[in-house]
Write a structure and sequence with these properties.
Blueprint lengths: L1 H4 L9 E4 L2 E4 L14 H9 L17 H16 L14 H44 L1 H9 L4 H38 L7 H18 L1 H8 L3 H6 L2
Antiparallel strand pairs: 1-2
Helix pairs in contact: 4-7, 4-8, 6-7, 6-8
């Protein structure tokens, strides 16, 4: 009320407007910003219905929510003259049931996003493998020369594995930077807060390195298996 009438003002008897209706103040509740009206007045003037569409019940002890919900349901069934709960003409929801529903939806979305991310990783990994295969084909003579001067298969294998891991790690770093930029832009446009989680960044870079390790293995192994004579003769 202080926002409407100012400090140290007696507001009892004064009028306030809610939507298009005028109401007279008959009392003030301390430390409350709610406006309370008789249920009949609220139904006819504010809601425009003869029957309440919803009833909210507050319970101080969360341990008795389930028992209290069952009690409320039984009272409503008796008042409506319904013997079978399956035939109820009302719906009863508790805060816990709403939380469970939201958690279920969230879990489904997480699974969906995880599936999309997995597909993206496989597609990206195949792209990395193709790039490595093309690179090996273009550097066949170089591989033959390295083997001719004493490079072992393990050396060639390690070289191309490191190149694949570095390539995917750089891609991961670029992805993290772009993700932060887009998140910052979204926060500016939609007035959202952005928090960078270092564990998530480490996980993303670790996954990028794992993709390079898995999909770079075959090209690196193929390069290591080349015969030095055939590689030097390659055109």
């Amino acid at each position: 009320m202080t926002e409407l009438f100012g400090e140290n003002q007696s507001v009892v008897g004064k009028k306030i407007r809610v939507d298009q209706s005028s109401f007279r103040v008959i009392g003030v509740i301390n430390d409350s910003s709610d406006v309370l009206t008789p249920i009949g007045t609220a139904q006819k003037i504010l809601v425009g219905s003869d029957n309440p569409t919803s009833i909210s019940v507050a319970i101080s002890d969360p341990e008795i929510v389930t028992d209290y919900t069952e009690t409320v349901e039984q009272v409503l069934l008796d008042n409506h003259g319904i013997s079978n709960a399956d035939d109820a003409d009302f719906r009863l929801r508790s805060a816990q049931s709403m939380i469970d529903s939201i958690s279920s939806v969230t879990s489904t979305m997480v699974s969906l996003l995880a599936g999309i991310a997995a597909i993206s990783l496989v597609v990206g990994g195949i792209g990395i493998m193709n790039i490595m295969l093309v690179t090996i084909a273009e550097r066949t003579k170089e591989i033959g020369l390295l083997k001719a001067i004493g490079a072992k298969r393990s050396d060639i294998l390690s070289q191309f594995m490191i190149e694949a891991i570095v390539l995917t790690t750089l891609g991961g770093i670029v992805g993290v930077i772009l993700g932060y930029i887009f998140a910052y832009l979204a926060s500016s446009l939609f007035d959202l807060s952005v928090a960078m989680n270092m564990n998530s960044i480490i996980l993303a870079l670790s996954v990028a390195m794992a993709v390079g390790l898995v999909f770079g293995w075959y090209p690196a192994k193929k390069a290591a298996a080349l015969s030095p004579i055939d590689a030097l003769r390659h055109e």
